[in-house]
Amino acid sequence: FMNNEAFGNHLSGIFVSSGKCLISQCKIYENEGPGVWFMNPGQPTIRDCDIYKNIGSGITVSEKADPIVSKNKIRNGVTQGVSVLDAGYGSFTHNEIFQNEKDGFAIKGTGTNPHIENNNIYSGISRGMWLTEMAIATIKSNNFYENAAAAILITDRAEPNITENEIYKNKKSGICVSRYGKGTIRNNKIHANHKSGILITSG
Q1: CA-based, 20 to 30 A from 161: which of 105, 124, 153, 198?
Q2: Does 19 score more than 90 pLDDT?
Q3: What residues contact 104, with CB distance under 8 A and at least 6 apart?
Q4: CA dihedral (49, 54, 57, 63) positive or negative
Q5: What is the average per-residue pLDDT within 4-15?
Q6: What is the DSSP string of 136-180?
Q7: Side-chain half-sphere of 91: how many Cα atoms within 13 Å?
Q8: Are 178 and 157 in contact (CB under 8 A)?
């Protein structure tokens, strides 16, 4: 599936239910649901796409889907840039995620466990990333900057492993742990944020 445009659909622009496929060099925009929705076990690949102005998340991953998501622009969404929920997985590398109205990443639910490495997550109108409801994740070697709220918010017994990221110039705290959030935070550079580098209010 290469060099296509998927736009103006009442649900998702592209829906992948299990199996393997390649989505490459596509424009996916202005859909009423997610730009791309991966559901059920399988390992499809999406790369080098421009995903923007969707009403649902730019990419949604759920129910044991395990996509390879690389070198995409995920931008200007009405809600989240990427949502991983309901035991979704996925490998997210070398993506540009910016100017989404809600979280750049929303990671939610028991069994949810994506690997997020070497992405740029910036200029969000809200948070860079939100982890909640017992989700886990590996968050490594990303750049989080110039988001309007916290770069990373951890709540409700979510437990990520956050290592070797650079987190800077966010309008609120770099990392906020609240409402029984958990996690391991080590070897990060957290600087020049407008509030605390790390804020722990409960956990």
Answers
A1: 124
A2: no
A3: 80, 81, 82, 97, 98, 121, 122, 124, 127, 128, 129, 147
A4: negative
A5: 98
A6: --EEES-EEES-SS-SEEE-TT---EEES-EEES-SS-SEEE-TT
A7: 8
A8: no
Residues 6+ apart with CB under 8 A from 97: 58, 74, 75, 81, 82, 104, 105, 119, 120, 121, 122, 124
Asked if residue 106 lies in contact with residue 124, where contact means CB atoms within 8 angstroms, the answer is no
Q: Give the C-alpha separation, 161 to 117, whole Å.
A: 12
Question: Which long-range contacts does 8-14 make (Cβ < 8 Å, 24+ apart)?
Answer: 9/33, 12/36, 12/37, 12/56, 12/60, 13/54
Tokens of 68: 């390879």
Q: Which of 164, 140, 154 is nearest to 199 (CA)?
A: 154
Q: Is 72 left (phi over 0), alpha (psi -120 to 50) or beta?
A: beta
As a residue count, the chain comes to 203
Tokens, residue 55:
């009403």
Distance between start and end Cα atoms, the chain:
45
Look at the pTM and tell me if it is higher than 0.85: yes
Structure tokens at 85: 């929920």
